[in-house]
Amino acid sequence: MSTNKTKANRENPRIIVIGSGMTGLQAVVKLRQAGLDNIIVLEKDKRLGGTWRENSYPGIACDVPSHTYSFSFAPNPSWTRMNSSGAEILEYFEQVADTFDINSVIHFNEAVTQASFDGETWQVKTSHDKTYIAEMVLCATGMLHQPKYPKIKNLDKFKGDAFHTARWRHDIDLKGKRVGIIGTGSTAAQVIPKLVKEVGHLSVFQRTAQWCLPSIDFAYSKRNIQLNRKYPWRVKFAGKLYNFIMAHTISKSLIGFRFQKLMLDYFAKRHLNKSVKDPDLKAKLTPDYDPGCKRMVLSSDLYPALQAPNCSVVTEGISDMKEKGVVTEDGKLHEVDVLVYSTGFDNFAYMRPMDLYGISGRHVNEIWKDNTFDCYKSVCMSEFPNFFVMLGPYSPIGTFSIIGLSETQTDYVIKLIKKWQQGEMACIAPKASAEKAFVNRVAKGMDNTIWTTGCNSWYINSNGDPVVWPWTLSQWNKEMKEPDLNDFELGPLTVQDWRSCNEAPAQTTEPAV
Ligand code: NAP
To answer: Using CA atoms, how far apart are residues 208 and 154, in angstroms rounded to an integer?
Structure first.
């Protein structure tokens, strides 16, 4: 790809994909299949795989069926388990990259530091002091890639080893040691059962109890795998079936479907009641909010692990850190040799820390400064023409097949690029009014959802507003099927045009759901 600044090339647009995780990989394959093959991928690390490369903690696995965690164009008959391990998923991605010759277009160890739009093309600067020019940028940096560390007084005073689950220190031997883990989300639920088997004592620091459902996980028999290889329809069918079940059970329970909600409540409470006998521990582990408000934990090993003789669940809040360990609000010092932060991710970082400048010259931090994530259909932003935030704000995350979502968004982006190639629009930028209408409509849609019933979770921003899709998957698929050009600027877009468009009163072109 040239680094010379030239006029936009509609016939063979230069496309930069940022990131070679799950979303970046499928984007390359799908763009090429659509005849858009002038692509490079800029990857900050030396290896592809995104979150499955970054996270290597003990117990890492997909907590949903692997057959839903496969690309539509590369179904995998060889998954060895219902819920495959992180290593197996990473291996699958590497195989896909080989099969579809993706490595040849990845620039490894080259992080994007800045991207700006000049009205025609994107200038993308990297850690190699290079500037690439491209017509289109697909930002596939993932949602959960910036580890979030707890804000605790004197955190740095602790003299033992301390690390985040996404930066697992495999060089530290935990055998027989006193280990503390802060956090009880889906990651901790996978780590804790492994740690209790290895460490001397495990202190689990729980700020908020989590609802948990048992997971259904088992190894596939050799015969099953052979049959999958022989009859590929079985693999596709299994993926479709599991997706259907998820979409019509847990997912619906979160968005106001009464029967599904009752079932979720029933199964979550039943799992807790059946698994935990000690009333004090049960009280500690019983959340004070409805199941599903935080992302459901899926684990059959968590409750037994929390009841292991070498495990204690600490629910007093953390007030301070000392050289030897963690001090809780009751004044007690919990001495630990090693501290693990299972405290999640800054999921609202999106493309950041990259410096992203739009057509008005404004930085994305300024546009999203109040934690209001203005965007159109999750992937487009009015100030950032020809730039697509994959798995962006309000994507239907959490309970759907994330691979399916990425593919649907990529198909939508491809349709937009095709329209741009055919000259139907000067550049791909939603109207600011359409963007506002989208965000307002989604905000109104939250009224019946679980996320407004009072809990704190990574789906909810610092203003208390949920940033997820509040309707069904089929509604989302319907809306993502075909771009509505009424919602896009069609004429040439200069900074002046952009400003004057945005001084106009907002109009709603969004249909009511
Ligand atoms: P998370 O769900 O955001 O959980 C973070 C945990 O850290 C929470 O328990 C939180 O408590 C706690 N915490 C944060 N700051 C704290 C502090 N100062 N003191 C005490 N506790 C603190 O993060 P995660 O477990 O890494 O999971 C993130 C998401 O990754 C999941 O929801 C899921 O979507 C995805 N994931 C998926 C899989 C899979 O297999 N598919 C596996 C792992 C993760 P509060 O609840 O009080 O905030």
So the answer is: 22
